[in-house]
Amino acid sequence: MTEILKGVDKVTFEVLRHRLWQITDEMAIMLKRVSGSPSTAQVHDFMVALYTKDGEILSGGFGVPWHITSASAACKHVAKKFASSIHEGDTFLLNDPYLAAIHQSDVYLVTPIHHMGKLVAWCANFVHVTDIGAIDPGGFSPRATSVFHEGMRFKGVKIVEAGELRTDLFDSIIGMSREPGMVALDLRSQIASNNVAKTRVADLIEKHGWKTIRAVMKGLIDFTEKGFRARLSELPDATWRTVQHIDILGKGYRIPLAMTKKGTDLLFDFEGASPQSPRGLNCTYWGALGGVMGAVFSLLCFGFPWNEGALRPVTVVAPEGSIINCRYPSPVSISTVAGTISAANGAITTISKMLGSSDKYSHEMLAVGNGCSCVIRQAGINQEGAYYVSGLWDWLSGSSGARSYADGVDTSGGQAGIMTMMQATNIESTESTYPLLYMFRGQSADSGGPGKFRGGVSGECCFTVYDAPEKRIDLIISGWGVEAAASTGLSGGYPGSSARFAMYKASEVEPLFKKAKITTDLVGVKAKVEELPPQWAGELSEGKYMYLRWAGGGGYGDPLERDVELVRADVEEELISKDAATGIYGVVFRDGIPSVDKRATLAKRKILRSRRHGEKIL
Amino acid sequence: MGYSIGVDVGGTFTDCVVISPDGSIATGKSLSIPDDFSEGVINSIKVAIESLGEKPHKILPQTDYFCHGTTVAENALLTRTGAKAGLITTRGFEDTILIMRGKGRIAGLGEEAITHPVMTDKPIPLIPRKLIEGVLERVDYKGRVLTPISKREVSTAIDRLKKQKVNAIAICLLWSFKNSSHERFVKETIHQMDPSIFVTTSSDLVPVEGEYERTATTAINAYAGPVFSSYLGALTRKLRKNGFKKQLLVMQAYGGVLPASVAVERSVGVIESGPVAGVIASQFLASKLGYQNVIAADMGGTTFKVGLIRSGTFQYANEPTIAQYSMLTPRLDIVSIGAGGGSIASIEPLTGTLRVGPQSAGAKPGPICYGVGGEEPTVTDADLLLGYLNPDYFLGGRMKLQVQKTMRIFEEKLCKALKLDPLQAAEAIYRIANSQMADLIRKVTIERGEDPREFVLFSYGGASPVHSCSYAPELQIAKTIVPATSSVYGAFGVVTSDVIHEYLLSDHLTVPAEPGRVSRIFSDLEASARDDLQADGFGSKESTISRLMEIRYRRQVHQLPVPVPQKHRLNSRDLAQVYADFEQLYETTYGPGTAFREAGMEIVHFRVRAVGFARRPPFVKTIGKANGGKASASGRRKVFSEKDEAFVMTPIYDLKGFKPGNKLVGPAVIETPVTTVVVRSDQSAEMDGYRNIILTGEEN
After folding, report:
1. SS3 for B111?
2. Separation of alpha carbons B567 and A599, rounded Å
3. What is the predicted pLDDT for the residue at A37?
4. Cα nearest neighbour of B353 on chain A
5. B340 Cβ contact list (under 8 Å, min separation 6)
6. Do residues A487 and A520 make contact, with C-beta atoms less than 8 angstroms apart?
7. Interface check A21 vs B, CB under 8 A
8. Is B431 at the interface with chain A, CB within 8 A?
9. Which of B24, B260, B287, B669 has the most neighbouring CB atoms within 10 Å?
């Protein structure tokens, strides 16, 4: 450590470490305050971070972790491209997924930080802007077959020049959106967020001197690298494997991952991934890298600042032209919640397997939760008679995978079970803003992957149009994980439930609702049901009811080893059904629910175990 | 004019302040009794009253005001010893309080927890799934009934809960703040079926949009309600026995007091009201001393807490949480970090750097120097080694602090790794703790657009003035005040609080709204306000009523309160002015260009606030004018000087020997049995006419 912190007092180091996190925290607050949009202020679909003058990650803050690495690439690109024309007071806008950003709707704003006229650092953020003028409203475009269908794409432009907003450019950008007013707010919040970071970093340099700050920046990165490598050296050398699947228009795409740990280095190799798809679920290399690093930060870098040091021991290899590293001009607008999430799921699984090989770290294992996308965007005329584009975020109530010592967290927020800061909006807030009415929203029994410790349960909801002047709105679904469950289990634990999108049609549902007989369970309802493909654009009109179930968390260990008392409690709390309790967990109840028949349970578990002999394993 | 009594029930101590009709103050402290908190209250009153040479049964009949703050409700919540509570909600939405919008896993947690997701969990449910009943009913976003509620449904749900022996029921239905008839129906049905059950409805408690937060607030209220109610009952009986005749008043987390008869229905409002009392005390003191902007900093055993007073008024929290549950009841904005006297200093194993907190040794096992089992170096231990604390005068000498043992453990646990001697290690702990406190103050000032240089720091709580001499200059805060009542500050805050009733009605009205409708809403709310003030004994001269409308831009989530003129009949010109004020306030608050005007505005809440002024006895200066006399030191010892980066022989003063107007120049340490004030060599201290210590930096 002494060599890491040459010339910097240890106490100052500790003080500054927390200051940097605090600065990113303040950037996040500024985004939420200025934008005031549900997506930013309530759902937290954004990221904020600080970078060194070379674009290395200095402090990854609160927000979607996939973007920490790709915003670094954005800083590096701008630094190289604009070189001598980067001036104090400039801010650059970039959203090209082939250069750095993961998909076009996550617009990056990158701002240089100067000290005495010299470039010393960068700050960057993104928010998921409301609409970028793509073929489908809302930015996720299931119908796009090329990046040219996916809306505006910038390779880096000066949106603010020497402190002045370029209104010509600003007006042109918002003019390309279906929602110019909302996008203007999004962009303004991003500028304000970077401005605050710039001021705070400048104050720090003013107070402590550039020499000290430079040493601390370097020290922090070295600290994380050293700590991370030390942690890796405590884990065994080996290769761990997993395969993830994405279903696109009825076709399955395989994403195998082999993670090799040798000494203090980690290699993630996606060799064998299926060729790229004609639809936008592909990701570019930046998406694959971001997904892997999101898992690395969350599962291996606790206790260290999230910075470049975490990246140094890691190599990510993804075959070109594959779904995990597609070629220009393939569509990628759904990548953040498809290719990237799938890369994260794979990395979460292989990292957990590695952690499970160590007595010291096995309690850090985590199965995948909420492993696939259930993104729904909506557009139409609202109850005030105005055109709008927005999202529906119920699925971000999420679910989390099981741990080696405890169940996954039920409806735990976010995606993949590690993005804990993303969350759903209230139904009352949705119904008051958009022309919709919910039949139910609840936790979904049996959605948690069975195991000795089960995955966290996900949820389900059902809604229809209500008070819509046109009696209809557009729905755009950009999901997957219907054909094959995406939330992988661990150590014999089952995967979490798959996603389900369905449209209940005909008048039969409506009278039921009117007569107040609708229940939380649509299974018994006699209505024409259309199972929707997970990538779909169509309309929700009166008399139609949209049903959604998002993915549950993966389980850990053999469900036949689950404590009988825990199974009983789960049944009582409606987290697993009686059928699953008996059929999967082998727990037999006496007539009523509360009482377990111990002898019958032992016998049942014996039968279930013996049935496994000779079973074909896929 | 009679006596006023303030009592603050804390986790460890119960503090009491008695203000005599002549304005003189007596204080008392006794141990809290968790099995029966009301007993501890009576004990502390005895101690205070006996210090006046009187008896409780003599003084209590002459007492006009009895205000108190209590941890009873939060204690029930944190130890999960509240009621067996059930919840009745809209069928199809039973899981709302369990799902917590997916945010309950990290709500209210900090950097450490957020960056280690595997280890985060939701709180254990206050109301388990089997005690949640969904009933068939539905109201839409405009308050129209889509599915009427049925008596049979409701009775069946209540029966099922009764079979499981609940003693409290929370009721929260979708859109009940728009149409409360269904909730009222459920409540009445419960009363008919079993009047002994404690019932709370969301439309009475927090008629505000957002079903998760509304349900959570209502559920906590039901959970803590019965415990709180029986505590208030016991306390009232004991006070009555001693001759107290007036209304018992209870501190609320939003910064006012409520009569027990109202407070008993709103236990959620008293949770975490303890630190609020300190901010109220600061507000009162600031108004007496003529300060507009105050940073109120409280350092206790486990946490450091900061609240702000800006232009004489306190600030409310944006997204308040209790035990990871999001709350809708207004609460003062008080931010805390785990940097208290008991915060543990440890070595980060990988790098060898020193870390302070957030783990705390608390009161047990406590710091090493207390000698009650503590084996980990803490901030208090560092303060001792640096000479700030007097080992022979802690709690007035009742507890002898152990210097040798502290040195030995510092040597073992810190010195080898840091290559520092124990005193250098103590200095490092002191600096890190101070920088964390400075960071927290930055967070509540600079990050919210406030300049700490425009504030005065009030430093209270046992260990606070040992550290404020260091972090205040770092933030360029020119003046620090250590209040005379610092040791019983909470009790002092409670007794100086106004009675504040809040009335709220939710009704989304698109702007421009019809003036007649707005006038009617306010008239109705104000009629209740006037009735309540009258019942509390406040005439129109001792009270005020004010009105606010909360407005937002459609499609944006932030709503802001805007004052509305106190006219019986508002016209469209009045309202146009209110809308203009809102537009201006929005941009002042969130920055230029932040308003999405095209979407239009809507009024979401109508609020009326009724304030009955506390009849505070005259608060007298001990002397009329400072005489500038010099204080005399009671001794000298070696104390660490930050400025000299060395130990220097420093004069020690006993606060008892201090007289108003006495001045001294640092370095110095001023001691009392419970508080120690450190004055740096670049600072001077003076006692004002109210016996507060005022620290100022060197004149530049």
Report:
1. helix
2. 76
3. 86
4. A10
5. B299, B300, B301, B302, B303, B304, B357, B360, B379, B463
6. no
7. yes
8. yes
9. B669
B246 Cβ contact list (under 8 Å, min separation 6)? B63, B64, B65, B66
Query: Residue B438's closest chain A neighbor by CA?
Result: A15
Domain boundaries along the sequence of chain B:
3-76+230-270, 77-229, 499-612, 635-697
Minimal C-alpha gap between B210 and chain A (Å): 6
Mutation for B interface: A14, A33, A203, A570, most B CBs within 10 A: A14
Tokens of B514: 């019809």
Asked if A427 and B118 come within 8 Å (Cβ–Cβ), the reply is: no
Q: Grade residue B227 by pLDDT with cuts at 50, 70 and 90.
A: very high
The CA-based angle A535-A538-A541, given to 5 degrees, is 140
Largest CA distance in chain A: 79
The pLDDT of A103-113, averaged and rounded, is 96
Tell me the pairing of strands B248-251 and B198-201. unpaired
Helical H runs in B51-95?
A: 56-59, 72-78
The average pLDDT across B147-175 equals 96
Subunit contact A516:B558, Cβ cutoff 8 A: no
Residues B58-64 have a mean pLDDT of 93
A381 reaches B (C-beta below 8 A): no
Residues of A in contact with B174 (CB under 8 A): 427-428
Polymer length of chain A:
618
Q: Which residues contact A599 (CB under 8 A, 6 or more apart)?
A: none
According to the model, what pLDDT value does residue B448 have? 66
Name every chain A residue with its beta carbon within 8 A of the beta carbon of B353: 1, 10, 13-14
Q: Is the pLDDT of residue B339 over 90?
A: no
Q: Give the confidence band of A91 by pLDDT, cuts at 50, 70, 90.
A: very high
Q: How far is A448 from chain B (nearest CA, A)?
A: 14
Beta bridge partners of B512: none
Checking phi first, is residue B44 left (phi over 0); if not, alpha (psi -120 to 50) or beta?
alpha
Q: Which tokens belong to A320? A: 């070109």
Among A274, A375, A299, A263, which residue's Cα sits nearest to residue A65?
A: A299
Residue A394 pLDDT: 97
What is the amino acid identity at position B191?
A: H
At residue B625, the pLDDT reads 47
Q: Average pLDDT in the A558-575 region?
A: 95
Residues 292-321 of A with CB under 8 A from B: 297-299, 301-303, 306
Residue B203 contacts A where some CB pair is shorter than 8 Å: no
**Distance between CA A432 and CA B139 in Å, rounded?**
12
CA distance A351 to chain B (A): 13
| Structure tokens belonging to residue A273 | 């991934």
Q: Does B134 touch chain A (CB under 8 A)?
A: yes
* pLDDT of the residue at B624: 40
CATH of B77-229, one of 3.40.50, 3.30.450, 2.40.10, 3.40.30: 3.40.50
Residues for chain B: how many in total? 700
CA distance A399 to A442: 12
What CATH number should be reported for the domain whose range is B499-612? 3.30.1490
Domain B3-76+230-270, CATH number (from 3.30.420.40, 3.40.50.2000, 3.40.1360.10, 3.40.50.80): 3.30.420.40
Residues 448-467 of A with CB under 8 A from B: 459, 466-467
Residue in chain A nearest B508 by alpha carbon? A432
Q: Does B352 touch chain A (CB under 8 A)?
A: yes
Please list, residue by residue across B52-69, b when 16 or more beta carbons sit within 10 angstroms of its beta carbon and e when fewer do: bebebeebbeebbbbbbb
d(CA A528, CA A531): 10
pTM, rounded to two decimals = 0.90
Q: B132 Cβ partners below 8 Å, 6+ apart?
A: B86, B87, B89, B94, B95, B97, B98
